[in-house]
Specification:
By secondary structure, the chain is mainly α. The chain is built from five helices and no strands.
Length: 97
């Protein structure tokens, strides 16, 4: 079974929200009072979703802030797992007696 690519929250923002809703990055920027550069960097996968951004997106889209932070946490965990898997494999689980 092939491994799926790790999906950045910016891709979810673009593909599941902006495109289907016909909302431009510019409009999202203006409506949420988030600098357009930050929106663009999130969409390009170069910037994280912060608590501030999650709160603003949740208000605008009618979602929860935890939805956006959860996407970011899932992405970050997978990135770390992928980059340090060999190191993690050397860690032995502690067993209580």
């Amino acid at each position: 079974m092939d491994k799926l690519n790790n999906i950045h929250p910016g891709e979810v923002l673009l593909e599941e929200f902006l495109i289907p809703m016909g909302i431009s990055a510019y409009r999202l920027s203006k409506e949420t009072i988030i600098p357009q550069t930050r929106i663009s960097e999130i969409i390009k996968g170069r910037r994280r979703i912060t608590a501030d951004t999650a709160l603003r997106f949740s208000k605008f889209f009618g979602t929860s802030p935890k939805f956006w932070l959860g996407l970011q946490d899932d992405f970050d965990l997978e990135e770390e797992r992928n980059s340090k898997q060999i190191e993690f494999d050397t860690i032995k689980q502690f067993h209580f007696n």
